[in-house]
Design a protein that fits this description.
Layout (H helix, E strand, L loop, with lengths): L9 E2 L1 H8 L3 H10 L5 E2 L5 E4 H11 L8 H10 L1
Antiparallel strand pairs: 1-3, 2-3
Length: 79
């Protein structure tokens, strides 16, 4: 009996770690703590759904502040 094919891309702990800029072991700890869901391969390795990883990354990421110094310099030189 075969399982249905999913188009969902699965990421390795190393790939997830690269996105978050952490060690792969940290990603494994997050999965053990329930912070991020994981799937186990038949060989026992963890895989992570790309959509879930990207959603977590987006929820933890804040936009960089705008650099207003260039605006101040332009106004100062114009006036």
């Amino acid at each position: 009996m075969s399982q249905p094919q999913s188009t969902e891309r699965l990421l390795t702990p190393g790939e997830v770690a690269a996105l978050f800029r952490v060690d792969p072991k940290t990603v494994t700890r997050w999965a053990s703590a329930g912070r991020i869901g994981s799937i186990r391969t038949p060989g026992g390795h963890r895989r992570f759904r790309e959509t879930e990883v990207r959603a977590l990354l987006a929820s933890l990421t804040t936009p960089a502040p705008l650099d207003r110094s260039a605006d101040r310099t332009a106004r100062k030189n114009a006036g």
